[in-house]
Amino acid sequence: MRTLVVIPTYNEAATLRRVVETVRVGRAHVLVVDDASPDGTGELADWLAERDYGVHVLHRPGKAGLGAAYRAGMRWALASGYDVIGQMDADGSHDPADVPRLLAALRNADLVIGSRYVPRGAVRNWPRTRRLLSRAGNTYVRMCTALPVADATAGFRMFRRQTLMALQVDAVRSDGYSFQIELALRAYTSGFRVIEIPVTFVERTDGVSKMSRSIVAEALWRVPRWAIDAPRRPQTVDRRSVAAAR
């Protein structure tokens, strides 16, 4: 299957080359979606693309949010005919060497999530406050929506083409963590097979985290609304496919 991994960037020049080149070892293609990074990330991405036919670059005029970057990248991937569309960070938090593991898991799923919070998953070098915030956020999502996913805010994922098309990504208006939560919830309530596999998340050593109070606030008010509006999961769906998330 033709695979493309969408990697949004904003000031990721210190880590982008290693991430892209490691993904390419597994032969997946890469789309870098750069929001006019002032540190030269966009120019570095162009340099990588000139030397490798499997690297593509989408330049946007300015920083407009993670959700908007993913929507643009996923739209490009679907229009370009890819069978599998992945997403991951460019800062080294997600190990690009794990991409083949996520792809292998997709044989039995419609959406695979690289999870920090299933057995053998881990987080390294996060302060205690950040760990607590992340855990609390995922607990909040499960309590409000009954989504049986341990790491709904995770940004390391693989989708089948048909899944993304059915989820109507352009209709997802949320950003940040909320974008990840909304896509997972839409997939689950639509009856798609969602599974999680363990990954180790490592805090970035270069650059600045994009985490902000506005991202947290957006999730706090959007999640209860989704809990009210989301349809109930069809009872005919084989729930064994989400057993790993429990």
Give a quick summary of the entry.
With 246 residues, the protein is an alpha/beta fold. It has eight helices and nine strands.
Describe this structure in words.
With 246 residues, the protein is of the alpha/beta class. Residues 234-246 have low confidence and may be disordered. The radius of gyration is 17 Å and the shape is globular. It has helices spanning 16-25, 41-51, 66-79, 99-105, 128-145, 161-167, 176-189, 213-229; strands at residues 3-9, 29-34, 55-59, 84-87, 111-115, 122-124, 157-160, 194-198, 200-202. The chain starts with a strand and ends in a 17-residue tail after the last helix. Strands 3-2-1-4-7-5-8 form a 7-stranded mixed beta sheet, with helices on both faces. Strands 6-9 form a two-stranded parallel sheet. β1, α1 (16-25) and β2 form a beta-alpha-beta unit.
Please provide the ordered H/E string of secondary-structure elements: EHEHEHEHEEHEHHEEH
Count helical runs: 8
Instruction: Tell how many strands the DSSP assignment holds.
Output: 9
Q: What's the overall geometry?
A: globular
User: What would the average pLDDT be, to the nearest integer?
Assistant: 89
Oligomer: single chain
Query: Spans of 5+ residues with little confidence (pLDDT < 50)?
Result: 234-246
Structural class: alpha/beta
Percent helix: 25-40%
Query: How do the strands line up in the largest sheet?
Result: 3-2-1-4-7-5-8
Mind telling me the C-alpha Rg? Answer: 17 Å
Distance between the termini: 29 Å
Strand content: 15-25%
Characterize the main sheet. Answer: 7 strands, mixed
